[in-house]
Amino acid sequence: MYKRQGLDCVAYDGALAFLSDLPHRRFACLVTDIRMPGMNGLELIERLHSAGSTLPVVVLTSVRDARMRDRALALGTFDWLMKPVTDHRLLQVLGSAIGTDAVSYTHLDVYKRQSLQRSRR
């Protein structure tokens, strides 16, 4: 479904796998859970924040921890979504995070769009 909306998604086995690939790819947005093997989602957000990353982060989790949520949001997390979430809602949040109306774009390469937007600045 996300591919039909123009979103090219890449899945990783965990935060460390994502971080090792980060220098080699351009990402428009990161969707992460809090509970993951190895480094948890909050540690990942802290690592990105410490590195000065401006990558929008959306947390999609079942963790009901207000302090953890508040810390993630204080670090610049774009949104904290509680599972279950509808595809429509996730697409809305992703669209807002990457600066497009993802729900209305079909067959659009989001990464090319982001590159085009950056070159116009």
UniProtKB/TrEMBL annotation:
Name recorded for this polypeptide: Response regulatory domain-containing protein
4-aspartylphosphate modification, residue list: 33
Keyword Aminoacyl-tRNA synthetase on entry: no
One GO term (biological process): phosphorelay signal transduction system
Domain of life: Bacteria
Domain Response regulatory, chain residue ranges per copy: 1-98
PROSITE patterns hit by this protein: RESPONSE_REGULATORY
UniProt keywords, alphabetically: Phosphoprotein
SMART domains reported in the protein's UniProt record: REC
Native species: Sphingopyxis bauzanensis
